[in-house]
Amino acid sequence: MPAPISLVERNPAVSAEQIVASLVPPPQFDDATFESYRPDPAHPSQAEAVERMQELAEAWTSPRRGGLFRKKAPEVKPGIYLDGGFGVGKTHLLASLWKAMPGPKRFGTFIEYTALVGALGYAEAVRQLASSTIICIDEFELDDPGDTMVMTRLLGELVAGGTKLAATSNTPPNALGEGRFAAADFLREIQAIADRFQIMRIDGEDYRQRDITGAAPTVEPAELEPALEALGGAVALDDFDALVRHLATVHPSRYVGLVRDVDALGLRDVRVLHDQNDALRFVALVDRLYDAQVAIRATGTTLSEVFSDEMLGGGYRKKYLRAISRLVALAHQE
């Protein structure tokens, strides 16, 4: 096996133009369609969500054919918001809707849009996005008042120009920011976001865990490199603490560059994270690892216990649980 690379030695630079060009669904959803979504019969809301998304795609792409005596069609909100637990197929449906819409169109995580504003400035970000027929926002979460204000203003301007919105989240829009900052002080802004969306709840079990039991497996230190070699492809190997420290020096919008062209990642001496900033940065990395389907092998603490009990009981609980779900899946990936 060639010598493993180190993520700690990477300091990727991502231009604003690259961020805009990368606003497409992750490769794992290349084949995602409404037809390939498999609703769980035990949870009727899944089939209802597919039907509603298909109806919405038709309503948004087909011009209304009027007539003097034609009954007025019901008002359709400019946005759809898929609220549900982890692994119920929300991103699959979001990618399917994106594919059903004509271009130009954009698909990205919440953090990618806020990074775009940071890289381009607000006015230029609006100009870049304003021609879009639809803006798809995966993992919509408001972690601070600044994000709340920026996204309220941005979405308002895009909707006013005719752009449609679609978002997924593990948090209903009227509860965004809850437990993380003084959400009550920004209730008007949060409600303005909520008012633009029709909310669709999707229930179900995490599909990533249907065929997986237990925690994320660990390997013995002497077995780590052989385990990575068995996976094949391009391998990265880092000490967990060194990687966590390195993440603090790279903007989360550039984490995609950290994992580019990496097929498997080995982590030595994983430990429980107690610092909130470290934990949130690690969550952002996990999201990029999952998008790229990078298999993980690790020594030390199981990755399913990397976040402290205090964190799992706090305002970012859903973020951490989503990350754990993804870590367990990647730790089992062959």
TrEMBL record:
GO CC terms in record: cytoplasm
Entry keyword set: ATP-binding, Cell cycle, Cell division, Nucleotide-binding
MF terms (GO), sorted A to Z: ATP binding; ATP hydrolysis activity
Highest taxon in the source lineage: Bacteria
Record bears the keyword Cell division: yes
Keyword flag Cell division: yes
GO BP annotations listed: cell division
Name of this chain's protein: Cell division protein ZapE
Organism in which the protein naturally occurs: Agrococcus carbonis
